[in-house]
UniProtKB/TrEMBL annotation, chain A:
HAMAP family: Urm1. It comes from Cardamine amara subsp. amara. GO terms for cellular component: cytosol. One of its GO terms (biological process) is tRNA wobble uridine modification. The keyword Cytoplasm applies. This is Ubiquitin-related modifier 1 homolog. Belongs to the URM1 family. Pathway: tRNA modification; 5-methoxycarbonylmethyl-2-thiouridine-tRNA biosynthesis. Transmembrane segments: none annotated. It is found in: Cytoplasm. The modification 1-thioglycine is found at G99. The lineage of its organism: Eukaryota, Viridiplantae, Streptophyta, Embryophyta, Tracheophyta. Its main location: cytoplasm.
UniProtKB/TrEMBL annotation, chain B:
This is Cytoplasmic tRNA 2-thiolation protein 1. InterPro entries: CTU1-like_ATP-bd, CTU1_C, Ncs6/Tuc1/Ctu1, Rossmann-like_a/b/a_fold, TilS/TtcA_N, tRNA_thiolation_TtcA_Ctu1. GO terms for molecular function: nucleotidyltransferase activity; tRNA binding. One of its GO terms (biological process) is tRNA wobble uridine modification.
């Protein structure tokens, strides 16, 4: 499945200072849907190169990191349970850097 | 892969905006938990700020107002929204951007580029004042001399004064800053943690410094950081977001994280903390220092020399610890008006040093 991931608000510094990442992810064994939960663990393993605690806390994003799925606040789509589909665009923005 | 109608992605959230009942919601408001569309979001976001400005009588027609501009999200959104509202509601304000150049290579020089673009994008005249010009020292040079331990004391004291000097250069009547609701809640919490009850209700005031050279106000006092960042994102505003390389304030970082954790559980917590600060009016025996002027530079000061001059003297004499922490009888020790509160009061500015929403 092909996805576009975008990092902003300083989070790009955690992944090679690259804001936009076009990635291919596979459905984990035994899962019916690919969810944000799967995506976060994939991102943490494959994209975050340093200070993962700036991005995640427990199994979700750190409070203060905003997530949008196709330009829609993930708080409207079930957060970690949001189902991700082919060609989705997922944006992560930190609110914690700078003023 | 999808047929016909699926030009835009299939919505995975609720169907319709709870304000207009027409469009798909894109955002859950932390303040009200309402699910609203982009257009309604712009409208309520801007209108709430307008209401705060009107209700608190922040401005008078004909005033010159400087926006403390760091290039970061808060001040960028503030500059954008304030110039919109000024036009839309005929505030009659002359708006300016005011930036401080602390002299931090790789941080402030980059963020100043953002402010220079904002100058063009919003058509607001920009004034930059630098530590180097005002004090003869850049932050880089100060850090080289004193290390990373107390640099935020320098940064904070110098910035406060630099802003007032910049505002004086611009001959403005007021200075507005981008402090948002999250920042103010954090400051309330830090004042409690420091036992500084005297500052508790004052730090929630929407306008401060009316006794000083230039009043400062915070039109975003009730505006959530989440909404500011969402607004900047949807409007594609150009802002700069890298941490100050000299800001290791772990204590503040912890308070911030605590507030964000609370917000996740109960978003109203931020407004409630501000309310608690506002309602804290206890009889306090802490005396506020009498205001005079600095004998050396003329800036307002409760002591013989202002804090910046004391710090500067230390730097220039190669004694950079001078003026940090409690006075030890040097320079200002002989001064009669030193009250207990005046000697130890260090105001907690929201935002880390260098992240410059002042
Ligand atoms: Zn709507
Ligand atoms: Zn002075
Ligand atoms: Zn600093």
């Amino acid at each position: 499945m092909q996805l576009t991931l975008e990092f902003g608000g300083g989070l790009e510094l955690l992944c090679d200072s690259e804001k936009i990442h076009k990635v291919n992810v596979d459905l984990p064994n035994g899962a019916d849907d690919f969810t944000m939960k799967h995506l976060l663990s994939w991102v943490r393993t494959n994209l975050i190169k340093e200070r993962p605690e700036m991005f995640m806390k427990g199994d979700t994003v750190r409070p203060g990191v905003l997530v949008l799925v196709n330009d829609c606040d993930w708080e409207l789509s079930g957060q970690l349970d949001t189902t991700i589909e082919e060609k989705d665009v997922i944006v992560f923005i930190s609110t914690l850097h700078g003023g | 892969m999808e047929a016909g109608e699926a030009k835009s992605k299939k919505p995975r959230g609720p169907r319709l905006c709870c304000i207009c009942n027409q469009r798909r919601p894109v955002l859950k408001r932390p303040k009200t938990l309402q699910q609203i569309c982009r257009e309604c979001f712009y409208e309520v976001f801007e209108e709430e700020i307008h209401q705060v400005i009107v209700k608190n009588r922040l401005f008078k027609s004909g005033e010159r107002v400087a926006i403390g501009a760091s290039g970061g999200k808060d001040s960028t959104v503030l500059a954008y929204v304030l110039s919109e509202l000024n036009r839309r509601h005929n505030y009659g304000l002359d708006l300016f951007l005011l930036s401080i150049d602390e002299g931090i290579t790789g941080y402030r020089d980059d963020s100043l580029e953002t402010v220079k673009r904002n100058e063009v994008q919003y058509g607001l005249p920009l004034q930059i004042v630098s530590y180097k010009d005002l004090y003869g020292w850049t932050m880089d040079e100060i850090v080289k001399m004193i290390g990373l331990k107390n640099n935020c004391t320098f940064c904070g004291v110098f910035r406060r004064q630099a802003l007032d000097r910049g505002a004086a250069l611009l001959k403005v009547d007021k200075l507005v800053t981008g402090h948002n609701a999250d920042d103010i809640a954090e400051t309330v919490l830090l004042n409690i943690l420091r036992g500084d009850i005297a500052r508790l209700s004052r730090c929630t005031s929407i306008t401060t410094g009316e006794d000083g050279p230039i009043p400062r106000c915070k039109p975003f006092k009730y505006t959530y950081e989440k909404e500011i960042v969402m607004y900047a994102y949807f409007k594609k505003l150009d802002y700069f977001s890298t941490e100050c390389i000299y800001s290791p304030n772990a204590y503040r970082g912890f308070a911030r994280e605590f507030i964000k954790d609370l917000e996740r559980l109960r978003p109203r917590a931020i407004l409630d903390i501000i309310k608690s600060g506002e309602d804290f009016r206890i009889a306090t025996t802490t005396k506020m220092p009498e205001q005079g002027t600095c004998e050396r530079c003329g800036y307002i000061s409760s002591q013989k020399w202002c804090k910046a001059c004391v710090l500067l003297e230390g730097l220039n004499r190669g004694l950079p610890k001078m003026g940090i922490g409690r006075p030890r009888g040097n320079l200002n020790g002989d001064h009669k008006k030193v009250t207990k509160a005046g000697a130890t009061a260090k105001s907690i500015e929201s935002k880390q040093c260098g992240s410059l929403d002042f």
